[in-house]
Amino acid sequence: MSTPPSIGVFALQGDVREHLRVLTDLGVDAFTVRRPEELARCDALVLPGGESTTMYKLARSFDLFEPLASRIKAGMPTFGTCAGMIMLADRLEDGIAGQETLGGLDITVRRNAFGRQVDSFEGDIAFDGFESPVHAIFIRAPWVESAGSEVETLATIPSGEAAGRVVAVRQGNLMATSFHPEVGGDNRIHRYFVELVQKS
Ligand code: GLN
Fold this sequence. Notes:
Bound molecules: glutamine
Structural class: alpha/beta
CATH architecture: 3-Layer(aba) Sandwich
Helix content: 25-40%
CATH class: Alpha Beta
Distance between the termini: 9 Å
Number of strands: 12
């Protein structure tokens, strides 16, 4: 792997710029991925927040779907936020008819899980290994409905109706959050991912 690592951000849809900024701040060679040639340059990949129902269709039309799925399957470190978590899930609840995911994480994700009343919200949550909580921003977010035994929980909702719901996970080189660490200026979760990439 190159030093600094080359980390692509899937850029057919979603909050690409925010991820690029955080990764660049961390000294990473960060760039957009819209074609298979760009994917080929990646040591690792970020799947941003956005709209998963659009992402999978665009990935299909731009001939990125299969190359992405096979790189992920082959062990490329990948970090998905929100819609990106949905894209990384092996199983999906409340997707639209025919919605496909790239898969990789042995989780079942429920799309738009927090319901209409709490479409968007934010709060401080503990994140595995961090000394202080992260300020997490949720926008029509999914949660992890269930997970296989290889999947490690990194964060859960601390209180309220959704208390205990899993909102950040890791399985080997793959990680995902229901919320948007690319927004809000706290780089620690991206740093966690970059360290994972450097160790891979
Ligand atoms: N609800 C969106 C989806 O289904 C995800 C929202 C987000 O990424 N902020 O893909």
